[in-house]
Amino acid sequence: MKKYDGKKIVVMSQAYTVHEVVPEDEHNWARVIYIDKKVELNKTMPEDNKSVALLHEVIHIINETTGHKMTEGHVDAISYGLIDVMKNSPWLKEIF
């Protein structure tokens, strides 16, 4: 299922295109290619992990754009925390 491939996501007023790819390193879940405005997701990872990986990369984009210096651990914590909030509080979709 390619529910992410080719989709656009706007982060910090910049449009990025999401691509599902088979990376050289199969353990690499996702990455941002800033110059090309692309987010690549490993298409071989489980579907449940793709939403976390995408949000993780969005947080990296925000971090990079704003000049903050979050560690990978900070980015992981925020992405897993936000996914948990969104999955367990579906009513939030109504206000965003």
Summarize this structure briefly:
By secondary structure, the chain is an alpha+beta fold. Helices cover 39% and strands 22% of the residues.
How are helices and strands ordered from N to C?
Answer: EEEEHH
The largest β sheet comes out as: 4 strands, mixed
* Beta-strand content bin: 15-25%
Percentage of residues in helical conformation? 25-40%
Name the overall outline. globular
Strand order of the largest sheet: 1-2-4-3
Question: How many domains in all?
Answer: 1
- How many β-strands, per DSSP? 4
Helix segment count?
A: 2
CATH architectural type: 2-Layer Sandwich
CATH C-level label? Alpha Beta
Helix and strand content put the structural class at: alpha+beta
The CATH topology is given as Zincin-like
Radius of gyration: 13 Å
- Cα(first) to Cα(last) distance is 26 Å
Mean pLDDT comes to 93
Low-confidence region ranges: none
List descriptors.
globular, Zincin-like, alpha+beta
Task: Give an overview in words.
This protein is of the alpha+beta class and 96 residues long. It has one domain: 2-Layer Sandwich (Zincin-like). 39% of the residues lie in helices and 22% in strands. The protein is built from two helices and four strands. The chain has helices at 47-66, 72-88; strands at residues 8-11, 14-21, 30-33, 38-42. It has a four-stranded mixed sheet with strand order 1-2-4-3, with helices on one face. The longest helix has 20 residues, at 47-66. It is globular.
